[in-house]
Amino acid sequence: MILDNKENSTKTNQGWKMVIGLEVHAQINTKSKLFSRASTSCEKPNSGVDILELALPGALPVLNKECLYKGITSGLAFGMKINETSSFDRKHYFYPDLPSGYQITQFYRPIAQDGIVKIWDAEGNIKEIRLNRIHLETDAGKSIHKNGKTLIDLNRNGIPLMEIVTEPDISTAEEAACFFRILQATLKAIDTCDGNMEKGQIRADVNVSVHKSGDPLGTRVEVKNINSVRFMKKAINYEFDRQIALLEKGEKINQETRLFDENTFKTSHMRDKEDSSDYRYMPDPDLPCFTVQKEVINSLESSAKLPYDICDKISKLGVKHSDAWTVAENPVLTNLFLDIEENFSTKGKKILFNWLIGDVSAYIKENQNTEINPIYLKNIIEKLESNSISSKVAKEVFIESINKNKNPLEIIKENNLEQTDSIEEVMKVINQVLEENPKELESYKKGKTNLEKFFLGQAMKITKGRINPVLLQTELKKELSKLAT
Amino acid sequence: MSEIWKLTLKEVKDLLHNGEVSPLTLVHEMFERIESQSHLNNFITITRERAFKSAEESWERIKQGNARALEGIPIGVKDLYCVKNERMTSASNVLRDFIAPYESHVTQKLWNQGAICLGKLNMDEFAMGSSNNTSAFGPSFNPWNYDQKLSPGGSSGGSASAVASGSCFAALGSDTGGSVRQPASFCGIVGFKPSYGRCSRFGMTAYASSFDQAGVFARNVEDTAIMMNNMMGYDPKDSMSCSEKPPTLDINKSIKGKVFAYPKNWMENLDKHIIKNWENCLQYLRDAGAIVKPIELMDFDFYLSTYYLLTTSEAASNLSRYTGVCYGSKKQESNPKYNATFELFGKEVKRRILMGVHSLSSKNECGYKLGLKARSIIKNDFMKIFEEFDAIVYPCSPREAFPVNKVFENPTESYKEDVFTVIPNLIGSPAMSVPSGYGGNGLPIGIHLMSKPFDEQILISTAIEIEKRANFVNYIKKFENDMNENNNSKSENSNLSNKTDSQYKKDVK
């Protein structure tokens, strides 16, 4: 589903190649901030603020160890090397929403380095995107510019972030989107980031450069302010076209930071790289080095099934990765799949998969907080696998079983819903329909043959999908043709 | 009882505990004393209401027999500790109107033991200075010779002067490179800086975070030990604080057989009184049964450059919070730029911020990173020395107190005031200054003791031996004697000559 996007720029064919790297900021889902006890979930402006966020004289940072552990857990999920000892540094810049004048980050010794995220391209080929590092850092506050004044909300100041930096291994907007979604779903699955882009829980800066095959890499441009995966693709493709246009005119690419505009889908100049301040990094003298014992690191390895692995597993059923991803990225669907898949043959697993991306997905979308009993689903899929019920019946039974919290087998039994192949029963229904609709029968006899569909519909109504529809249709046809002659 | 302010902390503690003096009377007398010494400009803020309220509570406790370790003892607090709901200026115009909304860990510990806060004491702006001359509230003066406007030293000058002149029984200071020990030496009292991490920095305005440490002033070693025993201790709110249980400092431990080092190569070019005083102290230690051996240390400049490289960098970082967004006068509408506060800093603070920004610049190869390397070399050198020696002994300052308006030829000349005191801060060691004699001008001179990190006890044991043997009379006792003999205060100090600035400069050389 991810790659079924036709926005891919056409210029790929003219020898231009794109080199993309991402810097993802993911908010670690802890109750309190990275270095203070202030809450991370305050809504009212400036209510989630401790003396540290205000940078009062004498305020000191104290590491929230849970953030460290969640950082390690995240690194492990991407097979990264975890640094047993990591440390924090100050990155200085002046901005009104950064009261201390510096951000606390991990410049010299990040928590995790060197990992891999596997993605797939449009043809379903697997590609590896290397992760350079994950480091922990504090978020800054929020400046709201209004009527010529600037209002400052410090609730976000000090919020724990993981900055996840890729190597420039990504080649298209679709790959970038695929990578980002896998990253997002993985962090959600291991419960280190809630991953809601709209709430700013995860966001990405994109570095884009273009060059021709065989030529050295081009000058890279950073694009900020990307708030959805859709915008990420738009921004990348806009940059691709913009940079190629410049180069083909013989102009140079300026190394700069650009802002994406959600209304025009364009990027615009924000600042030159030379203008960016010297951050004057220094080890934070208020914080010691943190050492995490090997045993602790090992114990942090998450037992959660990773979305990529699930996707891979489903793809082995002969399903495209991009389709399998629909189940893999959704924890509810994933759990349902994993809970019951081993009861089925490949055929049953495929039915299960199709059900998950079809009826179950649809149901979940409409009934967000309802739990689905995996045993009920298993019972229904079993009946479907053995052709004992029609998919129409299955759907109704599925919904009824959830609504009434009743075993679908009971519902099927009580309502006598098992599909039948008995000719006697089929004939009984056909005769009933013809008797109950004499007018239509007359018209049919006079040549209105398209009324066949009407009779079929009436028959289906009576049988409630209990009878094999193919059989019903064949027999109905036979019967009608007898009458017509 | 009259002139109770002349007593030591231990003496007044006993009187209070025995109910022989009421904390209320005591506090009342202390404020009278402070008033009579107001020309010394020691207090930036007087916390009168708080003091009387605490005194009442102390009186109740004493009556009920529930007296705590420091019940009813009036002390002063350097104005860089947050005391809840009191003004905390750090002697800067930037924080002139700042009311602390929370309590520092060290002051909380003292209040928990019943100590009473008389007020907030003058200091160099943001603790940057060695003469108390950089305070936005004007300098504090040394009681030893007010007429000559002598400096009490810095940066904790107000604290030292207040304790020396009898305005409080002890006072909190802070020590980043000698800010407790040098003023103690200048004012003829004891100044103690524990190991880095022994006292929490929570609630203390930061100057250079990896150097800053709480310290204390008292009139003798025993009082110092009593105070320190109630200040040291782990605080989870300071990530750099030491989780190990601190020692209970004991004044009755012998130094017999302990081995002391003195850097013999530093004796060259020093003032003869300073050398004499140093040699006397080494003899006291031998007399107490200790072994004294010479060692060679690097030239002062190496330590001093490393210290200034690192401290200015950390200062530039720590002070970057004082922008006009949260601090500084909101009334200054003429300059709405958010970094307008820079104008409010004094000259010295500005200078150090600029030096620090320069040291931290990514293109500066000889900056902060080089300083960190040098620091680790220095640490290793000293840890080797401490494998063989229990403590190192040398003068606290190259000179006696100088006039507060003394003009140094250039700013780095003034930085040389710290030559002897920066080493313990570079390596995290505890250190102290003990009054041990007088210089050529009849002003006090302190001897400087340092040990390996977390061995505070050896310093107290050594200081007691020096205190016993040194023929040193503090300002109050001298003053008191004068009163008794001819009622002509300060005449005893008449050997203080009226030297001019240029003469002082000669002395330095």
Automatic annotation (TrEMBL), chain A:
The reaction(s) this protein catalyses: L-aspartyl-tRNA(Asn) + L-glutamine + ATP + H2O = L-asparaginyl-tRNA(Asn) + L-glutamate + ADP + phosphate + 2 H(+); L-glutamyl-tRNA(Gln) + L-glutamine + ATP + H2O = L-glutaminyl-tRNA(Gln) + L-glutamate + ADP + phosphate + H(+)
GO biological process: glutaminyl-tRNAGln biosynthesis via transamidation; translation
PROSITE patterns assigned: GATB
One Gene Ontology CC term in the entry: glutamyl-tRNA(Gln) amidotransferase complex
Domain Asn/Gln amidotransferase: 335-480
The protein's Enzyme Commission number: 6.3.5.-
Lyase recorded as keyword: no
GO molecular function, one term: asparaginyl-tRNA synthase (glutamine-hydrolyzing) activity
SUPFAM superfamilies: GatB/YqeY motif (SSF89095), Glutamine synthetase/guanido kinase (SSF55931)
Keywords: ATP-binding, Ligase, Nucleotide-binding, Protein biosynthesis, Transferase
NCBIfam families: gatB (TIGR00133), PRK05477.1-2 (NF004012), PRK05477.1-4 (NF004014)
Protein task: Allows the formation of correctly charged Asn-tRNA(Asn) or Gln-tRNA(Gln) through the transamidation of misacylated Asp-tRNA(Asn) or Glu-tRNA(Gln) in organisms which lack either or both of asparaginyl-tRNA or glutaminyl-tRNA synthetases. The reaction takes place in the presence of glutamine and ATP through an activated phospho-Asp-tRNA(Asn) or phospho-Glu-tRNA(Gln).
Subunit comment: Heterotrimer of A, B and C subunits.
Family: Belongs to the GatB/GatE family. GatB subfamily.
Protein name: Aspartyl/glutamyl-tRNA(Asn/Gln) amidotransferase subunit B
Organism name: Candidatus Nesciobacter abundans
From TrEMBL, chain B:
Catalytic activity: L-glutamyl-tRNA(Gln) + L-glutamine + ATP + H2O = L-glutaminyl-tRNA(Gln) + L-glutamate + ADP + phosphate + H(+)
Enzyme nomenclature, EC number: 6.3.5.7
UniProt-listed Pfam families: Amidase
Recorded name of the encoding gene: gatA
Keywords on record: ATP-binding, Ligase, Nucleotide-binding, Protein biosynthesis, Transferase
UniProt region (Disordered), positions on chain: 484-509
Record carries keyword ATP-binding: yes
Self-association state and partner proteins as the record states: Heterotrimer of A, B and C subunits.
NCBIfam families associated with the record: gatA
Bias-annotated ranges (Low complexity): 484-499
GO-annotated cellular components: glutamyl-tRNA(Gln) amidotransferase complex
Active site: 78, 155, 179
Organism of provenance: Candidatus Nesciobacter abundans
Cited PANTHER family: GLUTAMYL-TRNA(GLN) AMIDOTRANSFERASE SUBUNIT A, TRANSAMIDASE
Function: Allows the formation of correctly charged Gln-tRNA(Gln) through the transamidation of misacylated Glu-tRNA(Gln) in organisms which lack glutaminyl-tRNA synthetase. The reaction takes place in the presence of glutamine and ATP through an activated gamma-phospho-Glu-tRNA(Gln).
Keyword Protein biosynthesis: yes
Location of the Amidase domain: 26-459
Family per similarity comment: Belongs to the amidase family. GatA subfamily.
GO terms for MF: ATP binding; glutaminyl-tRNA synthase (glutamine-hydrolyzing) activity; transferase activity
Biological processes annotated in GO: translation
Entry superkingdom: Bacteria
Name of this chain's protein: Glutamyl-tRNA(Gln) amidotransferase subunit A
